[in-house]
Amino acid sequence: MSAMLLQWMQWFQLFCAVVCSIRLITAKTASDRLVALNVLAGVVLALLVLRGVSQGRSIYLDVALVYDIFGFLGFLAIARFLKDRMTGDGGE
Amino acid sequence: MIIKEIFAILFFALSCIFGIAGLIGMFRFHDPYSKLQAGSLCGTTSVFSVFLGAIFLSPNTAVTGRLIIIAIFFLISAPTGSHIVARFAWNAGIIPWNPNKNNTFSRKEDE
Three-state DSSP class for B72? Predict the structure, then answer.
């Protein structure tokens, strides 16, 4: 019962990740892409956590924690890079 | 054993409802602020419900402890990311969408 529940939730999170990726590719402005990337990071984190719990191995949860930390740092770097480029281009 | 599974089903159903609502809102709203509100709030609630349901289904104590650490870190990092996106959109000069007039919420630099 619980194995089937975790399996279904993994498929649902995979579906959400695919829809977020479609939104990430087809968005028009940089802000929409950042919103989709923000949601995608959380969805992939949930997918890794469900995978680790369904396999019963805690190594997947370590991977999920490190993925969350590095995803947050990368997100910060992308936002800073886009802001610098935007002020450099259209500021003056 | 069965009570744990009932609680897990409750939290997973909550996660499915909020996840679908967040995805629809991310596609249907007009400006980046509304999309950020839908995606960020519903995404955070959905992922946190997945964590709570997984805590009920976790097989041993090592998994439970790591789940609690991940949940605490996620509660810190997800609102910070949303704040970064909102500040980026505001600095980029995007005007919030208003259904009545074209722009009542004018930016401070324009006045």
Answer: helix
Q: How many residues in chain B? A: 111
**Interval A38-76: pLDDT, tens:** 899 999 999 999 999 998 888 889 999 999 999 888 888
- Of B50, B58, B106, B102, the closest CA to residue A42 belongs to B50
Chain A interface, best mutation among B9, B57, B64, by max A CB count within 10 A: B57
Q: What confidence tier does B108 reach under pLDDT thresholds 50, 70, 90?
A: low
Task: List chain B domain ranges.
Answer: 2-110
Q: Do B57 and A2 touch (CB under 8 A)?
A: yes
Whether residue A35 and residue B40 make contact (CB cut-off 8 A), yes or no, is yes
